[in-house]
Amino acid sequence: MTQTTDITRAHSSPLNEHLSTALSLAESGVSALPLWAGKVPFGNCPGCAKNACGGRPNMKTPGPCRCPRPCHAWAAATTNPDVLTSRAWTFAWAQASAVAYHPGGAGLTVVDLDDTDAVAWARESLPPTRTVPTTRGEHWIYLGAMRSANAVRAGIDIKSLMQYARWLGLGTGTMTALPDAVRALVEKEETTPARGEVVSSSPGRATWDVSVATGCRHTEKYVRTGLARGLALVLARTESGAASQAFGVAQFLARQHAQCPGPCGLDALGQEVITAAVSVGVPEPYAARAVGNGLGADAGRAA
After folding, report:
1. Residue 106, exposed/middle/buried by CB under 10 A (0-12, 13-18, 19+)?
2. Half-sphere exposure (CA, 13 Å, Cβ side) for 210?
3. What is the pLDDT of residue 295?
């Protein structure tokens, strides 16, 4: 394998397992970064919060930030051993729960299959490649980079140029070239706008009201509390993953009402989730598809 695709040499160390793994990935030409509890990157430092620093030079909107800390998630991933072992990264490694890598920087694309249904679809629809088991599904790794996108299908994310993937080991099988079938999952017109720009064709937004939930078994307080918590999760995704989070919130809301005779006003609830996703930079068609997939993930949902 070439340097950029040889990820077979990563190993662990009893002294600092995560840092050792990151250094081995870096030696193979794969940029690495530490992950906090919950498989998420460490938060930005005060100087980088809310992108006040202008962002990293390699982000979608290139900026001047060269913060020595592991800020900006995937954009902080590096192959530089001096950075990985630097004082600025020491605290992160001491607190890290896992290691992530930047697939696109290594010329790779990860098809993240989040459940058994997604895995079954991939086995029927995609050419075989290197496969890495995950907690709930599998990562399929292809040679070639492309634009990242979340919730391209129910339970499927594409992680490449502007995403990170958790390092879960070598996996099995031989990596094959990125197929057109994977590229086709990401529509060309669904480009992510710069932060602060909202892609929306609907200035008027529907909001949920108890009057549209005449067949719901839950109290208004129960519904609004669940919605508020879900919206907070989506709005917290200011760096990445808002569409995937929106899918998960929509799926959760649908499951809450699965036993209701209906209607429960799920379309209005879904519209509020879409609005939240759009407000943090997700293109409206992309957000609508993610939420629609989430609401329809469970058969028999109450509309």
Report:
1. buried
2. 8
3. 83
